Each structure stands twice: as C-alpha cells, then as structure tokens.
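User: My instructor asked us to take a sequence, write out its structure as tokens, and then describe one feature of it. I'm not sure where to start. Here is the sequence I was given:
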Amino acid sequence: MNVLAVPIDIRIPPIRVHVSNPAEYYDKRVVVTIREWPETSQLPVGFITASLGGIGSIDVEQRALLVKNNVSFADFSKEIKREMSLLENWTITEVRRTCFCFVH
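Assistant: Let's start with the prediction itself. The structure tokens for your sequence are:
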C-alpha cells in the first residue's frame, strides 16, 4: 500500500512510500530517502530507511532535528568517552541530555 510521508521541511512535498503495514508508521517520525521523482508526477517516490519513534516525544523530535541537519545521534565512541571522563564537572549524561535552543 502507498502512503504519504509528510516532510518536516515544508519546501519538500509529501513523498509517496510503499509500506506493507501502514499502521506501523502512523504518527511516527520516519527517515525517508527519495528514490525517484518522475517528471509526470508532482510527488516524489521514496522508501523508509528508519523509524525514529512517536511524534511529540522529546527524544524523537531531537533525533529528527539531528537527522534533518545531518548530525549523527549514534552512541559516543570509546575514544570520546575516554576524553570526556578527563573533563571536570562533565558527564556524558549531562552532555547528551542538554536541550539546546536557539531564539531568533
């Protein structure tokens, strides 16, 4: 079955995605890759590469913003963890849970 994935970026139109179980993705943030955009269609065609979780969850929305801006949210490497342990007054939990906001 084809469904429409609505991008966070309003400049991109909805993307047609074929899924076997649409209910699995309802109200979820997903990462979609555009596979093609036929000249005769107003909508691109893509596929889901990852499901981030339910819309509205702070963790999921933060991951979505990271993905949108091409920032990895993978776990820290052993080398980074070792370097962080040398810093005073910092723990990995503090760094990873800090909410960064920008006001224009």
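For the description part of your assignment, you could build on this observation: The chain has one domain: 2-74. Try explaining in your own words what that tells you about the chain.
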